[in-house]
Amino acid sequence: MFASFVILLFCWVSVSHSAPAPCENLLRPVENLSFQHVKGSWALVSVSAADPKYLEKLKSGNSGSGFFANYTDTAEISFTRISGDGESCQYMQTNITLDGSGFRDPQLNITMTLLHSSCVDCIVVQLEEIPGKPLRLYLFSRRREVDANEMEEFKAQAKCLNMSEHHVMDPTTALCPHAISGNAAASTEASTTA
Ligand SMILES: *[C@@H]1O[C@H](CO)[C@@H](O)[C@H](O)[C@H]1NC(C)=O
Ligand SMILES: *[C@@H]1O[C@H](CO)[C@@H](O)[C@H](O)[C@H]1NC(C)=O
Ligand SMILES: *[C@@H]1O[C@H](CO)[C@@H](O)[C@H](O)[C@H]1NC(C)=O
Ligand SMILES: *[C@@H]1O[C@H](CO)[C@@H](O)[C@H](O)[C@H]1NC(C)=O
Ligand SMILES: *[C@@H]1O[C@H](CO)[C@@H](O)[C@H](O)[C@H]1NC(C)=O
């Protein structure tokens, strides 16, 4: 009885050693990230957080999106975070520089790493304030909602980062307009009332 348990355990251990660890696979950063990969606008589909209290602030009626634009004269990229609470829209624009698999935002002192996703029109963004301590995981898509498999993959990625809860944005809530036209540099911070 004990012997067969040991054999079983041994087999399990050897199998789990030969198969690639699922989390290792799920948390692979993208490679050779370019502006072409991220440019334009993205709707926030789902958020997961290490601290579930963060998710409590997100209610139905909230919306989120992101917008990447380049400048004509520098390698810097403009990243605008756009959030709506149903009454007004907040815009926060910062300059970033892409590295191989994400970017650092020097103004906010955060690191964003893009993780591989099987969803072709999504970006999965891992946010860290302190290196090695993922705070939040965001699923952005060109679509307002993703299919069940894509959501399952995102949930599995969050679980690998010890984030179990997640919030799905209401896809029927209108997104805030970009409110940014022409050169991205024209807008540092703006606020409109819907
Ligand atoms: C990334 O770029 C390097 C060097 O240009 C290349 O060797 C590598 O295959 C690329 N990786 C992917 C996933 O495209
Ligand atoms: C900005 O992006 C466009 C394509 O969207 C590209 O043609 C152009 O070369 C880019 N400019 C810089 C400075 O990278
Ligand atoms: C972002 O970069 C542009 C172009 O280099 C510059 O004009 C603008 O002032 C920068 N904005 C911030 C907030 O650093
Ligand atoms: C940015 O964050 C790192 C890591 O938490 C910290 O060591 C550093 O002092 C911060 N820099 C600024 C300018 O806040
Ligand atoms: C998740 O939690 C486990 C157990 O507490 C820990 O060993 C692991 O390093 C954590 N993973 C991350 C990505 O924080």
Automatic annotation (TrEMBL):
Identify the stretch annotated as signal peptide in this record: 1-18
Which keywords annotate this record?
Glycoprotein, Secreted, Signal
Q: Is Signal among this UniProt entry's keywords?
A: yes
GO cellular component, alphabetical, reads: extracellular region
Q: What is this protein called?
A: Apolipoprotein M
InterPro entries, sorted = Calycin
| Places the protein is found | Secreted
Stretches that traverse the bilayer? none
Query: Where this protein primarily resides, as one coarse class?
Result: secreted
The organism named in the record is Cyprinodon variegatus
